[in-house]
Specification:
The protein has 45 residues and is an all-alpha fold. The chain has one domain. Helices cover 67% and strands 0% of the residues. It contains two helices and no strands. α1 runs antiparallel to α2 (26-41).
Length: 45
Amino acid sequence: MKALVDYKELKCFLDFLSDKAEDVYQAEVDKAIKFFLAEQVEKRK
């Protein structure tokens, strides 16, 4: 399934999720966000 996503809105949402993560999981959340952006967003540009 393909979808058009506003990159700025997606980035804001992912930043919001990152801010809500507990400190214990912060590194994992950041890693998952970077992986998602690299694999799903940047390849589709």
